[in-house]
Amino acid sequence: MKKGLRKGVGKFAQFCLLAVLITVPLAVSCSSKKPETKVFNIKFSHVTAVDTPKGKAAEFFKQELERISGGRVKVSVYPNSQLYKDNDAVSALLMNSVQIICPSTAKLTTIVPEFQVVDLPYLFPSGDDMHAAFDGRLGSMLSDLLEKKGYKLLSFWDGGYKQLGNNSRPIRKPSDAKGLKFRIMSSKVLEAQFLHINANPQIMPFSEVYTALEQGVIDGQENTWFNIYTQKFNEVQKYITETDHGYLGYVLLTSRKFWDSLPPDLQKSVADAVKEATDYERKIALEIDLRDKKRILNAGKTEITTLSPEEKKIWIETFRSMYSRYPQWNNLIKAATAHQNPS
Description:
Blueprint: H1 2-32, E1 40-45, H2 53-68, E2 73-78, H3 86-94, E3 100-101, H4 127-134, H5 137-147, E4 151-161, E5 163-166, E6 181-184, H6 188-196, E7 200-203, H7 209-215, E8 220-223, H8 225-230, E9 239-242, E10 247-255, H9 256-261, H10 264-299, E11 303-306, H11 309-320, H12 330-337
Parallel strand pairs: 1-2, 1-3, 6-7, 6-8, 9-11
Antiparallel strand pairs: 4-10, 5-8, 5-9
Helix pairs in contact: 2-10
């Protein structure tokens, strides 16, 4: 009896040992399996060439965010209107068809009319004045207005100062532009700007400007040196006047819905990458603009008119007389100019 019991106990012990040997590896295997990490994909759409401040900064942002997030965020950049023109991109953002865009400030005026204040000629005398305004009270005011429309403002990027190109004649004073057709972005202020000097503004997508100049549909356009060069506008523009009359700025945007879908740590990663990309973009914007001005000069196809200080003063006085038309934006104008030294 005792012998049989010992034999039974022995078999039971062997069974238990075998069960342990089988179960332990399974438990170890299950506990060592890492949970799958969700990867967030971002489509970044913009309309300019890769070799522009915006184009370079977009690529910089992609690399920086993918590095900071440890691969949890993947960014695909689509330059040159490959996905959308700016106006379409603004709508596509809210539908989550694209997650980040960087339109010019003028493209947002139909959503937030107050953005038109940025288009006022000679509003920012220098880059430092401009950055102080956008990183301060003016930027906060515009950001709050965008939030109400479902957008999340990430940053302001530099485009630079605009020059005036045309195919008819050299322009030295505002009255020289009378009767000429100039392409503009969709903005009531830009429209008023050209009407103010008796020219004819024509709203047109950026991607159509080269052909329109080549075919004589328009006489001229306003843009930065680097946009003129990278889009080859100088090849179809006989004259450019260095007016520095308007600021071309970009707004880095996502949707409120997409932003809220990101966990807090990835929101911080995006914010950190945006800051680094903004510092980088602002640094290279002026460098690239001056570089491409030299390229246009060296190409020798375009006559460039440089204004004297006295001539420049006439342009400033002519255009600043427009400000009185917009009393509803007095607070925005004050916020834009609060950091400027009185002169």
